[in-house]
Each structure stands twice: as structure tokens, then as C-alpha cells.
Write a sequence for this structure.
DNA sequence: TCCGATCGTTGGTGACACTAACGTTAGCGC
DNA sequence: GCGCTAACGTTAGTGTCACCAACGATCGGA
């Protein structure tokens, strides 16, 4: 929806892996945002719903760790999800500091919708690559990401 | 410098290429930002200096197109660069709407410093990959990016 | 000469990641 | 049992990047 006719890109940038990754991420982010916006959601919402669906009810802190979202941002995103009844928050009887967050049936339906949108986005995003190449890319990125997720330091 | 001990990540996320790309970009962005911050700069500054050095003096609009930065953001970033005398702005005698932006000697020195930092960042970022794999990743990302840069629509 | 396009600039917005501070609560060491 | 530390949820604020709308000035083609 933008990108005002880019001129040729400096090779100093185009050759930098960090630039390639972040720029590709910008494009990917746009596609994702557009896809999710059609269902009135954004990345945080999907990540939280997917995490809840996969691991079951959890505290907000656990949700944050698993989805990679900061606890303080989890609060805001859950407020929005709860307002639309995609999720319920109830105090943990066993630990009064905690909330137990649970996905609702409506939340699961919303998640299905989001997943459908995102599947289309993947296809759009990786359009120029063959299935083998897509697998290669996924493999390489996973390795890089894993390396920086649990720094061997 | 953060990442508070991530729990296991949902496979629903870990398998999504769009997620892999954006998450890897977050890590890359952190490394880049840290590297540049050490010289009191950020991404926009490097991109502008590199573009200027590669293509020579240019108008702000041209700079924006080549570096992929919105014109309005170019203004702010150039203000910061000009304040530190890394760049000079002079009116274009041939077109009074335009400014001609030129990189200074100090700007070139700063660019060298930034490039040095970024080279180290690339190595850190791609540490788990062999040279061949790094080339593969670069190739794949370039293809994806090219496809979304000039939409074939 | 008019009109549309371009240029620089200002002043916003939104998503995402992240930080600091706070009161509450749990659980461990002693 | 008591005190300290750590974890929890929440609020409020920051920085980067990308983007949008509007403006006056200027240019260039019809």
C-alpha cells in the first residue's frame, strides 16, 4: 500500500544479511498485519490465542514467556481479547498472585480465522520460492533464531 | 540483554515462516541497534550515509526512495546527521524545491565506523551457519524481498 | 497560463519491544 | 513463625521504525 516506487537499492545495504532480514520482515509484517486487520486483530492477539490453544490455560507470565511478549504488553492484549470474549481471566485459587487465562469457544473460532488468513499470507510471502526452498529458508532461520534465543554464552 | 528465559515456543508459531522472519529480525535489530548505539547512531543514519556514499549527493526525496525511508523520516534523520556535521544540506540552484545533501569527510569516517560495527554484527547474527549456508540464506531472502519490492501485480 | 506533480517540512499514528516502579502474594532459609 | 526474596499483574512511559495527511513553494507540461 506504499513503497513509492523504490529506486535502485545501494549494494552496501542489499548485501547485508541483517538488512535483508529486517526488510523482509517489514514486508512480512505488512502482509500479516493486513491479513489480521481484516479480522480486527494484530500479531499479539494471534500469538496469545495460539499459545493458549496449544498449551492450555496459563498464567499471564507463562503466556508472556511462551509467546515472547513482554508481560506488560500481555496485559493490554489480554484486555482487548477479554473484551471481545475470546479469553477469560480468573484468579488462580492456588496462587492468589496469578490469573488463569483460558481461551473460549469464540476465541478458538477467532483463532481458526486468523490461522486461515496467515496460511494465505505465507503463500503470498514465499511465492517466489519452491517448496524445497521454502523448507531451506525455514530451516536456516530456525537455526539462527535458536542460536539467539538461548545464547550459548 | 533481555529475553527473560523463554519457555518452549508453540509449534503453531515456530513453524510459521512469517513468524520466523519477524522474530529473527527482532534479534537482528537488537544486535544492529546495540552495535550502532555504541557510536551513537541508529539504522536510519547508517542507511542514509551508506546511500549517500554509494550514489553521491542527492535530493532528500531521492535519498528516501533509495534507502527505503519515508521522506518525512528522512528530514528528521538528516537534521540529526547535519547537527553532527556528517552531512550538509544546500539548496539546488537548478531546482529551488530541492535540497542537495552531501556527505562530509567526518560523515565518511562515521560511516566506516558504522560499517565496522555492522560487519561484526553479521558474524554474530549468522554464527550458527556455515559460509555456504549464509550464502543460501542471503540468496533466498533476496529473492523473497525482490518479489515484494516490485509487486508483479 | 493553468494544473498537476514534486519537494521539503510539520505533526501526527500505530505496532512492537522494552524499562521502571508499584503493591500483592508465595515460599524458602533460618 | 518471621523475614527476605522472588514472582505476579498492572500502570505508565520510551525508542525505533514505518506510515499518513496536510501545507506552501516550485516546476513543468498541456
Amino acid at each position: 500500500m506504499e513503497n513509492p516506487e523504490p529506486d535502485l537499492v545501494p549494494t552496501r545495504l542489499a548485501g547485508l544479511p541483517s538488512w535483508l532480514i529486517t526488510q523482509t520482515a517489514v514486508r512480512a509484517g505488512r502482509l500479516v498485519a493486513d491479513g489480521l486487520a481484516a479480522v480486527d486483530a494484530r500479531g499479539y492477539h494471534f500469538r496469545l490465542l495460539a499459545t493458549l490453544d496449544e498449551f492450555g490455560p496459563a498464567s499471564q507470565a507463562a503466556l508472556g514467556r511462551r509467546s515472547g511478549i513482554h508481560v506488560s504488553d500481555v496485559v493490554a492484549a489480554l484486555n482487548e481479547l477479554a473484551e471481545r470474549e475470546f479469553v477469560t481471566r480468573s484468579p488462580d485459587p492456588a496462587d492468589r498472585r496469578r490469573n488463569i487465562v483460558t481461551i473460549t469457544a469464540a476465541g478458538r473460532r477467532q483463532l481458526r480465522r486468523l490461522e486461515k488468513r496467515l496460511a494465505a499470507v505465507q503463500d503470498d510471502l514465499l511465492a517466489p520460492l519452491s517448496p524445497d526452498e521454502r523448507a531451506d529458508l525455514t530451516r536456516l532461520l530456525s537455526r539462527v533464531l535458536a542460536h539467539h534465543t538461548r545464547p550459548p554464552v
Q: What stands out?
A: The beta strands of chain A are 87-91, 99-103.
